[in-house]
Amino acid sequence: MGVQVIAIVLVGALVGVAVPALLQLRRTLRSAEIFFETTGARLNSTLEETSGAAAKIRAVAGHFEEGSADLHRLVETAGGLVDFPARVLTALRAWRSARGKPPQQPPES
Fold first, then answer.
1. How far is it, in rounded angstroms, from Cα 73 to Cα 66?
2. Which of 6-10, 86-90, 91-95 ranks highest by mean pLDDT?
3. Measured between alpha carbons, how far is 50 from 53 in angstroms, rounded to an integer?
């Protein structure tokens, strides 16, 4: 009988500690979800701006000699910058999809 009382007290103590921790975890995860939802919209905008800048750089590069190695490196770096936000956006969409939410459509311009 004494062991059962101790077990009940321990279970009660664990529940008393676990409930506040789980509530805080829930609030934290909700804040993270809101952050990722708003960040996804901003990433769409940033991706469009970066793509436009990379296209302008490529257009300017076309006016110079093809043998210019420095200009080639600049264009390749700009192309890499365009790919990074797209990968982040793809990862965010995959995260949302894994959570069972439909992918957020980019706002219409």
1. 12
2. 6-10
3. 5
CA distance 34 to 26: 12
Domain that includes residue 49, residue range: 2-98
> In this structure, is residue 17 part of a structural domain?
yes
DSSP state of 101: P
Residue 78 sits at φ, ψ, to 5 deg, of -65, -40
- Token pair of 7 as six digits: 């077990």
Q: Which helix (H) or strand (E) holds 7?
A: helix 2-62
Cβ–Cβ under 8 Å, residues 89 and 40: yes
pLDDT digits (tens, 9 = 90+) for 2-37: 888 888 888 888 888 888 888 999 999 999 988 888
pLDDT of residue 26: 93
